[in-house]
Amino acid sequence: MATRLREVDVVIVGLGWTGGILAKELSEAGMRVVALERGGMRSTNPDFAIPLIRDELKYAVRNALMQNPARDTLTFRHSPSEPALPMRQLGSFLPGEGLGGAGVHWNGVTWRWTGIDHAARSYYEQRHGKAFIPADMPIQDWPMTYAELEPYYDKFERTAGVSGKAGNLRGTKQPGGNFFEQPRDRDYPLPALEPSYSQILFNDATAQMGYHPFPRPCANASRAYTNPDGSRLGACVYCGHCERFGCEANAKGSPHITVIPKAMAQPTFELRTHSWVTKVMLDSTKKKAIGVAYTDVSTGEEYEQPAAIVALCAYAINNVHLLLLSGIGTPYDATAQKGVVGKNYCYQPGGGGVTLFFEDKIFNPFMATGAFGIAIDDFHANDQFDRAAMGALGGATIAVGQSNGRPIGYRPVPAGTPRWGAQWKKATAKWYLRAMNIGVTASNMPNRYNAYDLDPTYKNVFGQPLLRLTYNFLDNDKKVIAYVGQKAAEIARSLKPTSMTGPGTLGDYNIVPYQSTHNTGGAVMGTSPGNSAVNKYLQSWDVPNVFVVGASAFPHNSAYNPTGPVGALAYWTADAIKTRYRQRPGLMT
Amino acid sequence: MSEQPNRRDFLKTVGTVGASGIAAVVGVDGVDAQTRPAASAPASSAAPVSHAYTFLTAPEAAFIEAAVDRLIPADDLTPGGTDCGVAVFIDRQLAGAWGSGDRTYMQGPWQKGVPTQGYQSPLTPAEFFRAGIAATNAYCRKTLQKDFDRLPVDQQIKVLQDMEQGRIAFEGVSAREFFNLLLATTMQGFFADPVYGGNRDKVAWKMIGFPGVVAIYSEHIKTYRNKKYDVEPKSILDLS
Predict the structure, then answer these.
(1) 3-state secondary structure of A377
(2) What residue ranges do the domains of chain A occupy?
(3) Phi/psi at A116 (nearest 5 deg)?
(4) I want to staple B116 with a disulfide (CB 3.0 to 4.6 A). Which of A194, A276, A493, A510 is the partner?
(5) Of A88, A238, A361, which is closest to B217 when you measure between CB atoms?
(6) CATH code for residues A1-111+255-346+446-473+519-589
């Protein structure tokens, strides 16, 4: 029998970036907030102290900071006609677990999304005509404009200590920044990091070709920084152990060193770790949530936490899972194309990148940060980019990062080299220091069949159905990768490498090799209950005291990483709850 | 090419005691190393590599030692896989949490699936390894009349290549899947921090020029552009 606890104003499910932002903002506004985190406590010291944090096997290969699929995972298939089988081990993406969530182990790339992203359907219809959008591609506009979200993007950049260079200040183009970005009210809080040698080569080559290179915005602090809340970040030391690791220098913008300690300083806030939420409890009308049910996974005891507001701030995948398990919103049916919860799952196609090998250059790939890089946006945010020639919607960024030189995971050798044996060894010894990568990161448009529902067969450790993912890369994605991959190859050739491999082509989605933790959609935001699970304020249309915050709200995926708008939307939602919902609960319009 | 003298021969001469027992009692390392084809490898200042196994049986250890010596052959860059500690690394990984299926969803029902759906075996990684070794040896006995580790080196290489390319099939275990897991685990052992038992004396890091775990490059990111950063690598083991 579950123990029923005292009601609070807000219960937050998951304490990463979005949960941390809501926890801080709402508890500081005097609301009584309880956050339930399924993982444990984590702090930089001792959890991320050197030398132990520099353990590639433990963190990057065995996934020490990630969710444990033995307890809960999802099933996967390419199309509705195939059997879905469980993802038994993590691979393609790495959701985090524990205080700070994926905000601890992310790389830190922090974009503001484009104006095209914010108004996807309107833009493509106007620019290319309605017929340019395939019938099975349910793209839709965001319910808020870029201009509406701009102050919240800014707030997140300042919280996380983003290093970068403005390209457009209030409509005036700025040399050295992203020529194609939307207007910003002010520059990034920190200057760009020092580029690597590979990035300088890419910068010069792309400028020579008439493109517009700029430093990729990143939450790796280029110098020591105190954010507006008084949280202190250290300067990045280019250690090359960023993604999949916690930062020992506190130089990576992370919730466990910023918003979460601020919430924890509030008497109105309480954190409960090892608390696994199994369900949002609804009243008899099914139109109102009365709280959440959770299990303390360190004791097995069950609890009910009543709350006036339920904020789902788990990883995007788990937000959708909880909605389906709780019966909130109509589940999406791909065959009938009815319902909303589970639709528009998107991911991040890759494979268009190029690896360059130089006999006469040394790149020191281990001198690296998670997110620094030089990028071009000419084939993505650029309104003049001719998508008709590509024959596809969206686009891709081309960039040179240098995010790790860790030897288990990073061992570039020219094409045709065996994977083992004497020749492999010679090639690995020769090329490790002498290779660089040009990466292509593509947008992903939704397809009617790329969606989640509940699996009919497999269960998690609580006996609940696993989430089922039906997903594949489709024609639009393959065209983007093929087209922009050739552009990357042209840039590569201009650098006259000794040899190069790639670009590859995009085949079927494979859930085994790591690609990105950019899983979006499933509880998308929109303008009406007919096209979305949540409204402009990420509020469930069906159960308005449930907010669903995170990349689950994106109707499609950009060629940019998701965390910038994830943070912005969390501040936006917190603001709406504080200033409007609190005074007048109910569906906000 | 002649047959490789190996660990199994040594064990036969000593008796039938289990592998770890021998290692502990008679100090197998010094003797055994002389029989291994690593004579031309760079001298190592570190302690002799351990051959004490806790998971692998003696025949399994013989298989793994032979396999990692083919995957990472001794040459002027490094000693062979076994002398780099890779077999010991694999044994410890199989004996530990990962081998036991930690962080692996183990619930049924089980179906084969397609490769893009990933690992679908009902076996833990350690059990899968064990089954893979047995299946490889069964194949080798059937077609070449000997266990894998008793084959001449060129035949061992051929069997591994056939497994990698999917040109041969085993009973009950996918030859290619087993090869891929064996290769991945071998590379982990070769390149992981020496604290796990492989990458002995940081040979793999020295081979490629990876400086290890200190990793403070705030100034070096500017001063070492297109310039080699030559330092003695430091490992967790060194700093602990």
Answers:
(1) coil
(2) 1-111+255-346+446-473+519-589, 162-252+350-442+474-507
(3) -65, -40
(4) A510
(5) A238
(6) 3.50.50.60
Assembly ipTM: 0.96
How much is the pLDDT for B47? 62
On the question of pLDDT at B40 being above 70, the answer is no
A194 CB contacts (<8 Å, ≥6 apart)? Answer: A222, A238, A372, B221, B222
Q: For A82, which residue in chain B has the nearest alpha carbon?
A: B113
Above 80 in pLDDT, residue B1?
Answer: no
CA-CA distance, B195 to B48, in Å (whole number)? 15
How many CB atoms sit inside 10 A of residue B109's CB? 9
Residue from the list B104, B111, B183 with its beta carbon closest to the beta carbon of A420:
B183
Q: From the candidates A367, A459, A469, which should be mutated to test the interface with B, based on the most B CB atoms within 10 A?
A: A367
| Residue where the block lists tokens 């996918």 | B174
Task: Determine the average pLDDT of the residues in B130-135.
Answer: 98
Q: pLDDT at position B171, please?
A: 87
Partners of residue A511 in chain B, C-beta under 8 Å: 116-118
Contact A429 B70 (CB under 8 A): no
Is the minimum CB–CB distance between B215 and chain A shorter than 8 Å? yes
The amino acid occupying position A558 is S
Q: ω into residue B211 within 30 of 0, thus cis?
A: no
Read off φ and ψ for residue B88, nearest 5 degrees. -65, -40
* Residues of A marked as catalytic: 518
The low-confidence residues of chain A, meaning pLDDT below 70, are: none
The pLDDT of residue A374 is 98
pLDDT the model gives residue B240: 87
Other C-beta atoms within 10 Å of A575: how many? 17
pLDDT of residue B50: 74
Nearest to A546 by CA among A535, A557, A555: A535
Strands (E), A144-192: 168-169, 172-173
C-beta atoms of A405 and B210 within 8 A: yes
Q: One-letter amino acid identity for A163?
A: S
A residues 165-204 closer than 8 Å to B (CB): 194, 196-197, 200
- Sort out which chain B residues have CB atoms less than 8 A from A90's CB and list them: 103
Partner residue facing B105 (CB), from A86, A196, A240: A86
* SS3 label, residue A414: coil
Alpha helices for A191-267 (secondary structure H): 197-208, 259-264
Whether B8 has a pLDDT exceeding 70, the answer reads no
